[in-house]
Amino acid sequence: MSQFIEFRDVSFRYREDQPWVLENVSFTVHTDEWLAIIGHNGSGKSTIAKLMNGLLLPQQGEILVDGIVVNEETIWDIRKKVGMVFQNPDNQFVGTTVRDDVAFGMENHGLPRELMLKRVQSSLAAVGMSNYQSHEPHRLSGGQKQRVAIASVLAVAPELIILDEATAMLDPKGRLEIMETIRQVQENQDLSLITITHDLREVIKADRVLVMNQGRRWLEGDPREVFAEKDALMNIGLDTPFVTKLAAELSAAGLNIQREPLNHQELLEELWTLHSKM
Amino acid sequence: MSSSMIIGQYVPGNSVIHRLDPRTKITIIFFFVLIVFFANSVMSYGLLTLFAVGSAVSTKIPANYLIKGLLPVWFLIVFTFILHLFVTKEGEVLFSIFTFDFYTGGFIQGLAISLRFFLLILVTSLLTLTTTPIEITDAIESMLGPLKKIRFPVHELALMMSISLRFIPTLMQETEKISKAQASRGVDFRTGPVKDRIKAVVPLLVPLFVSAFKRAEELAMAMEARGYQGGEGRTKLRELSIGRLDIYIYILFVLVIIGLFMTRS
Description:
The complex is a heterodimer. By secondary structure, chain A is an alpha/beta fold. In chain A, about 40% of the residues lie in helices and about 20% in strands.
């Protein structure tokens, strides 16, 4: 697997007289992988997202996107490669209708009209919003607006999509809707995905998890490895999913649970085979 | 908030006027407003009325909707007529009430001016009734295009207009939310002396402004993340095109102008 993004000892602060938001952070994102970045408020996770497409530039260290160093001159090329979906569904909807909003990014990059028409169709189809082309934003639910935001990013054909707490303002139904949309999109297209969240339930399906704490890389591993550190996660203010807590309680009660379960199914699997393992 | 909320007074439809290029509509209305002042005979007024009312009928917008929309200006039209009746003292005495004489000149003048007024308002309201605000924005951007040469920020202006249009419903929903939140904390918007009611608006406006600025900042960030870098090198999805229909309407309008100058006295 080749690396798509590389952070090399990156440090960042908003102002000279303020403490570092990120301190000596190094990590890589591979092509076609799903990386989840989790962390408590103020852990620097959103700053990482903004650094990746040049909305912010680091004071120390460098960031490479597809082999290109992010700086003033390269940000426009990088923004074609890295798409972002933000937290608030309303405040990133630029067009007056769904169609116009999906086209906005493509218009910025100067794509020809015929191509735009084609891409509007295909990207709306990819998120299941084809029937809403001429809807105005106030007639859509939060989840639908976020799906349009994902479609708008897909339309520019980026190589990486960052979802910066894209589900944080949605109700549980909208959240499921978005997680499902993301999973499908990532399955059907060649792209890397970074989801940024403070909700551990959302990292289960990711390939790799990066845990941030107080501006530093705190832990990195696949979801199972991360969940295994549940006490430490609790200590830095991250709430573990119910299944993880239940498994911990069961272990404490003397049951021998060998593999950290990621969902109900896996826990069930552990439990009904428990007796034969003893 | 109802989902049927429309900005402006646009009435969806598929009539000839609906399908015209918005630039055609704006151009024709502009010249119509000018030539209305050249009419001075029964025939010329008749011709312009025919054109305006004919356009209105062809939009297939229900007449009572149109009349209702003109309601606030009916008063002005009638007032203009009455004013002329009292003030203009030309021609023969038509009739007199007590010692006050009403003249034919005043009657005719009043009628003509009121008709002019009515025609102007009817035609301009047809524009907003048959054209979506975003089409009008596109038309303005396109028509102001030449001003780019003198560095007039045409694209920015159009973008500002379209973003405002986009955020009107959002901010209205927000206003409703805040006013409910404040009402639940005991702010009374509806009763009491005017002074108190004006004061009650403050806790509504302050949070609204704060959130609007926050929205603006986030929107700017989102736009930048999507590669927005001004109007330079930008392409457009929505396209305006002058079709055969527009040409026919232009020809018709030129005929009306010629007819007007032939029927002037």
